[in-house]
Each structure stands twice: as C-alpha cells, then as structure tokens.
C-alpha cells in the first residue's frame, strides 16, 4: 500500500489487507479475549467473596463497617452452594485464587500490548490511504481489547491496593487506550455503509478514512452508535477508577450515598407522619389516607427502586455481565463489518478474510503462548512444599539444648525444695515440748511483739 491519499480523486477500489482483516489476526484477538471471559466468569463464581472488604488489610480495623452487596450475596449463594462440593473448590480455594490472579495479570498485559499495537498501527496507516472498511475493523478489534482490560481492572482491585505503582501504571495505560479508541470512534459517525448495505453516500467502504475525519451530525444509526459506544467506554473507565481507590469508592461515593439516603428517609418520615395527622384530624376509619396513597407510597417505591439500582451498579455481577455483553457486542460488530462487502455484492476475496497466509498461520500458532503460561502457573501452584520437619526433629538446636539444661536444673531445684519442705512439715508434725515454768530467782524471757520483729532481707 502506497503512503499517499487524494481526497479529491474518485474512490479507489477496495483492496484486501490481510494484516487487518486476516482470519488469523481475527481468531487470535477473539480467542485471547475469550480466555479472559472464561477466567473472569470462573473467578466470580468460585473465588469472589462479596462479604470481604477489598480495601481492608488483615491487621486493619476500619472505623466504618463494611456492607456486603446484597445483589452479589444473593447471586452467589446458590451457585457456590452447588460448586462447594467440587474438589477443586473445597480444598484448593486459595490455590485457585492465586492461579486466577496470575492469569488475569498475564492476560491483562497481553491486552494492553494488543490494544496499543492495533490503534498505533491504524493511526500510522491513515496517511497511507487506509480505507474506512479497514479502519472500522481496527476500531472493533481495539474495542474488544479495551473492554477486556477494563474488566481485568475490576478483579485486580484487591491486588492493586497493595501495589500502588502498578495501579498507577495500569490506569494510565488503560486511560490512554480509552482516549485513542474514543478518537478512533469519532471518525466512524458517518459510515452509513456499515448499517445500510444499500446506502451509496460517501464515505463508501473504499474511501480513505483520513478524508472523512469530521462526521456530519445526522439522526441515523451510524451517527448514534458513535456516542453510545463512547458513553460505554467513559462510564466503564470512570467506574474502574472509582473502585480501585478507597478514597473515591468509600469516602466520596460511599459517604455521598449515605448522606442522600439519610435525608431521603427523613423526607419519607415527614410525609408519613403528615399522613397520620391527616387521618386523625379527619374522621376516617381507614388506616391509610389519600396523602399516604398518592404521596408516601410512590415516594417509597421510588426510593427502593433507586436503592436497588445503585446496588446493581455497585455489584460485581453487573461488571461481569457488562463485560460479557460488551464482548459479544464487539464480536457482533466485528463480524458484521467483515462480511459487509459480500452483502454489498462485492467479491469475498476483497476482504482478505479467508486467506491463510504466513502471518495468519503464525497468529494462530502464537495462541499457544498464553496457554503455556496458564499451564506453568497451574504447575507452580501444584509444586509440593518440601517437608523439613524430620530434619528439624533429628537435629536438636541450641535452644532445645539450653531448654533441656534449664529443665534439669529446675527439676533439681524443685527436688531440693520438696525435700526441705518435707523436713519442715515433719518438724511441725512433732509433738510440742512440755512448757517449763521458770525457776525462782530467774527472770522470764519476755515475748517479742510481732510488730517489733526485725525486718527480713529479701531472698
């Protein structure tokens, strides 16, 4: 492909570009992200504990008690009850947790590199006359990589709490990736051909993408899908930034939620009390007044609905379902875009999807690399710890020797004390000597007052 473009010239014919739409490239990206979907789902079902505070350390007592999310508690109650009888869950939960954590970190790093390589290569090829068809494929591939990385941040929240440097670096990398993807999405607002195969308006799928960087605002599917995708990315990244920092998650969002809940409950109480006063002032045998029916109950319903929605938004099951939905949405858009030329009556060879060239075969073979990494992590957790108790039992230490000497010394001392005690007791058991009266002319010995006894020295 020549690095030149001419926006005033007629649109050139679509040429295949297997580096972007090749079947090996597509399979590699989808399968790698699919691994993350499986790991995230497995982590949530078998390892995630909704009653554990992710910001609390083992030796830390927080002043505010942690409130488990009721959505996660109810969603995992029956699932964990069934899986708890499985051997790898009941006996190896800690091992499984470490194994899944290592896998998530490894695949997260892979997706960061993949996302940057896709978007940077695409931006560099824009000046080479990259077609809008290939640019939209690049955007879909970057979408899958980006939402995969956002999902990994949610599960790494507890790990990133203890590794602040890694947390900052990951957030910066994901933030830059999100910004690049949003910029790439902004070019696709007037790609009408992606939603309507019969639309011949420019840009066509073979037009240079660099010539149509500023879409015309029109109320159609092509334009509306652009801000919708941007909102999902912004919402996903913002929520991940909040949940990985306890300052934002607990002190800002948590206190704001408590503040609003407190005042709303106070308002509901006022409305309820006024309804009771109305019943007493008016002669009515019904326990509910019109104020309670038309004011209090609707407000109470709105309050509970908002409370449930906030719990759903804050739950981990929502994040897992969001990731799966966004992943399916990205794959659907990617495959629809790839087969769009065939629906428009063009030859299938122009997509370059069905050609198994050298790069496509290499991309599929490289899928073995993450699999090998997973196997190595699993074998590391299965490595038995050498038993050193026998060696310690056969070789006495200095402390044990000194302890034995002290014990023997104490036994000898205690034996002596017991002997002296027995002698004293035997002396006390002897009958007292008969008292003799002093003879005449002798002076009796005065008894000593206990208070006048001389002080004894401490032993």
From TrEMBL:
Signal peptide positions (record): none
Recorded superkingdom: Eukaryota
Keywords, in A-Z order: Membrane, Transmembrane, Transmembrane helix
Bias-annotated ranges (Polar residues): 434-443
Biased composition range(s): Basic and acidic residues: 396-431
InterPro entries assigned to the protein according to its UniProt record, in alphabetical order: Elsinochrome_Biosynth-Asso
TM region positions: 20-47, 106-126, 132-156, 168-187, 228-248, 293-310, 322-339
Region (Disordered): 384-459
Protein name: Uncharacterized protein
Organism (species): Penicillium coprophilum
